[in-house]
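Posting for a labmate who doesn't have an account.
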Amino acid sequence: MEQNNSEQEEFIEIMEGPSLSGESSAEEPFTGKPQRNRQNPYIIPASIVIAGILIAGAVMYSNRGASDTAAIKNAATGGVGAPGSPPSLSDLAGDAPFLGSPKAPVTVVEFADFQCPFCGRFFQTVESPLIDQYVKTGKVRFVYRNFAFLGPESEDAAAAAACAGEQGKFWEYHDYLFGHQQGENEGTFAKANLKKFARAVAGIDGAKFDPCLDQGRYMNAVRADTAAGKSYGVNGTPATFINGRLVSGAQPIAQFVSVIEEELKKSR
């Protein structure tokens, strides 16, 4: 879903950063005298809500809608959904590109948008270390799925990555896209540039790549990914499922490691 800049700023989910104890409080210190908040019973609940929303810097882009309630609840618990009845791992992973062993005890599925700056942060600070620590050691299978909701360049970039995948270069192109983010729907991921990117990635044949992109060969698949994400409760990016448990936003890597270790213990 395309949003203008003001809408994106308004509906950024806020989940990471200083803890509640590190935030200045809207309540007055106890002095032994009646406080103003005792005269208005709505002040304390309001301060709690505000503090919960401001749990720290913005870490994900979110869709507008009733499903935002779930994302706000996740924010209050560090962005991790409670264990419950998640979608099956086979449904979550689908036939999307993945790194690692298909027999790994933990499957991590990321839904992301190539234009999303928080997905770029996730790529830099979470994905790369997780691949080194868990994927390369056979403990995690890492799956990438599209949640291309920030506009036409998001969909085109996702389709271009799939075209690169035809030539066995999905991950190389994926890395190149996240390494060259610059604004949203401002031409950075216009088709002409996506074709140039293909020629910058070693091993991609531009003559085969271009018609794939121009014909929209994978556009339906990209939109089906986004629709699937919505059906699983995804309402913003990045959204990461760890053995079916949803972690919302570009949380600190320690948050992902904690959930992965919990799931690894279950498999022993």
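Reply:
Got it, the structure tokens are right above this. The CA atoms of residues 160 and 249 lie 24 Å apart.
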